[in-house]
Amino acid sequence: MTKRMDLGGSFTLPGTSMTLNRMGYGAMQLAGPGVWGPPRDVDAAIAVLREAVAAGVNHIDTSDYYGPHVTNELIKEALHPYPDGLVIVTKLGARRGADGSWIPAFSCEELTAGVHDNLRSLGLERLDVVNLRVGGVTEPTEGPIEEPLTALAELKSQGLIRHIGLSNITPRQFEEAQKITEIVCIQNFYNVAHRTDDAFIDALAPQGVAYVPFFPLGGFTPLQSSVLDGLAASLQATPMQVALAWLLQRSPNILLIPGTSSLNHLRENLGAAALELPSATIAELNAIAKNAAPAARQAAH
Ligand SMILES: NC(=O)c1ccc[n+]([C@@H]2O[C@H](COP(=O)([O-])OP(=O)(O)OC[C@H]3O[C@@H](n4cnc5c(N)ncnc54)[C@H](OP(=O)(O)O)[C@@H]3O)[C@@H](O)[C@H]2O)c1
After folding, report:
1. Residues 197-206: tens digit of each pLDDT
2. Under DSSP, is residue 239 helix (H, G, I), strand (E, B) or coil?
3. Ligand 1 lined by 217 (C-beta under 6 Å)
4. 256: Cβ contacts below 8 Å, ≥ 6 apart
5. Where are the beta strands (DSSP E) in 142-266?
6. Of the residues 262, 264, 267, 275, which should be mutated to test ligand 1's pocket, given the most ligand atoms within 8 Å of the CB?
7. What are the boundaries of each domain within the chain?
8. Alpha-carbon gap, residue 270 to 274, rounded angstroms
9. 56: part of which helix (H) or strand (E)?
């Protein structure tokens, strides 16, 4: 039987009764290559989801456009009926073309269809949290988000969504959004080597808004750094554990959703919550961002 773990303490999404353990799980890696189609090993994917929840993970990040439908259907198969307290966060703002392409989907009709697709594939009557995902491939772009956000807020008022978050947005868009509806979380690209959002995270923390980095381990091009390797060896940890522990220590409003299709990597990642980094280690890690080369990018949603 999987032992429940300390997952870095917990954080309550603002204005909600949703208390999330800070170490969660991102389901995107469970779909096939290119986030398209089923995984090679369905049983292994289900085992990863069940072990995550058995270890205490109560925050799973997904989208119906992963696959499409694949990760949501795996989540349903592995975990439905869902245990009390499990929060499944999904996202809208794209749909998939027949060739696997990512097509923007922000009209009221597309957002409504997206909510119903997620409800169906997850087997839910109401979605816990829906992130409106805007912007470019991995970086936000300025521009109004009023129209799609208002449509999402309307779906919330119809009782189809409990809470709303935003993904791949700028601080200015967050300000605009707060005038339209309550925002409980932000999901942007951030990790020890990619720290564009440092000031944004610091501004969100006192407001109690969760910041959930996507690509916490570097995404499709996992982090590689001799500094990380050396520090990990000195701490008898792995480089990925150090990268995750750094995020947990970076700010109390950071919640993690590292993605993996591997049980061993899942165990390793969850174990990072128990790793306390000395302040000298944190100082060395802070220097990584200054020296980081831009990572190869792939489509990310
Ligand atoms: N809002 C957005 O635009 C957006 C964009 C991208 C992702 N997301 C969400 O964020 C979550 C996390 O992002 P991500 O999964 O793309 O990237 P990630 O968590 O940074 O990294 C995942 C990659 O790292 C590997 N990995 C995981 N644990 C490892 C370990 N302990 N040692 C070595 N390699 C390891 C995985 O391969 P293995 O499968 O082999 O472990 C995979 O290739 C996703 O699952 C998704 O839910 C959101």
Report:
1. 999 999 999 9
2. helix
3. yes
4. 8, 22, 23, 24, 212, 213, 216, 244, 247, 248
5. 161-167, 183-187, 210-211
6. 262
7. 10-219+247-275
8. 8
9. none
Indicate the residue type of 22: R
Catalytic residue positions? 66
Token pair 């109690």 is found at 208
Residue nearest to atom 11 of ligand 1 (CA): 26
Contacts of 263 (CB under 8 A, 6+ apart): 44, 47, 48, 51
Give the pLDDT means over successive 10-residue stretches in the chain (301 positions). 88 98 98 97 98 98 98 98 98 97 98 98 98 96 98 98 98 98 98 97 98 97 94 98 98 98 98 97 88 54 73
pLDDT tens for residues 21-43? 999 999 999 999 999 999 999 99
Q: Does domain 10-219+247-275 have CATH number 3.40.50.10770?
A: no
Phi (first) and psi of residue 207, to 5 degrees: -85, -5
Instruction: Tell me the CA–centroid distance for residue 217 and ligand 1, in Å.
Output: 6
Mutate to test the pocket of ligand 1, among 217, 261, 270 (most ligand atoms within 8 A of CB): 217
Ligand 1 within 6 A of CB of 209: no
CB distance 216 to ligand 1 below 6 Å: yes
Instruction: Give the DSSP H/E element, type plus range, for residue 169.
Output: none
Residue with the two structure tokens 């050396």: 230
User: How far apart are the C-alpha atoms of 120 and 170, rounded to whole Å?
Assistant: 31
> Which residue from 187, 238, 185 is spatially nearest to 207, judged by alpha carbons?
185
